[in-house]
Amino acid sequence: MATPVAMVVGYSIFDNVITNRDPQVVGFANYVQIITDRAFWQAGRNTLVFTLVSVAVHMVLGLTFAMLLNTDLIGPRLRAAYRVVLVLPWLFTIAIVAVLWRMLLDPRGVVNYLLNTVGIDVGLTDWLGSPALALGAVTVINIWAGYPFFMISLLAGLQGIPAEMHEAAKVDGANPVQRFWNVTIPQLRPLLISLGLLDVIWTTQQFPLIWMTTGGGPMGATEVLSTYTYKLAFSRYEFALASTSAVVILLASLVLAIFYARSQKMKD
């Protein structure tokens, strides 16, 4: 595990590697170039928006559907059917998800047809081809593909809460909203923190979904740090700069990993 990390860190202090037979040490010049690159900061902003919105909605949808599947208000057969349907997005590979949503969001696809049918005039909107809409579109796709993990994990957490706690709160006069905030959420807090940190780490490093839907375009509207780094290496063949970008991402990921490790230690 240490060898490739050390190699990338080493590459980052040369003027270029792999394509240059005699690379020269440039110290921190590559880091200065990356940090002052406007495209890097745009990719960073896109990554931040993409991550924060995805994680927040994953939490809300996951908890909502988990509570739906944990309630006695619907019968066991209907609950079992819901479990199958709601977990389906998680069963698809990223390639299938990308192809599926590219067809759905095509200007002549199902989404535009349905919106126009119900009276929302969107015409032939190209959701993945519009600089103003593309980032929101890929964020929705990522939310759709990722919420089942939260749903399943939180459902297990809900089923682990003793029923006696809810019954005691009910006897004390707590209404459903009060029981949710004072019993359910405190019991799920360690799980919510762990899931949130893990999802932040995973989402900030999302590459295949972006690459197979928009490729970081149009006009950099969906460029994230992972696609930015990939293009430096395999489109521009600037492997030293790509390594530098990777090291910067690694440092940010280490901060998140430390927070996650500390949250697990506190939970234990």
TrEMBL record:
Predominant subcellular localization, coarse grouping: membrane
Domain ABC transmembrane type-1 residue range list: 44-260
Protein name per Swiss-Prot or TrEMBL: Sugar ABC transporter permease
Family annotation (Pfam families): BPD_transp_1 (PF00528)
Subcellular localization, as worded in the UniProt entry: Cell membrane
InterPro entries linked: MetI-like, MetI-like_sf
Membrane topology: Multi-pass membrane protein
Family named by the database record: Belongs to the binding-protein-dependent transport system permease family.
Signal peptide positions on this chain: none
UniProtKB keywords: Cell membrane, Membrane, Transmembrane, Transmembrane helix, Transport
Source taxon at top rank: Bacteria
Transmembrane segments: 48-69, 81-104, 132-156, 239-261
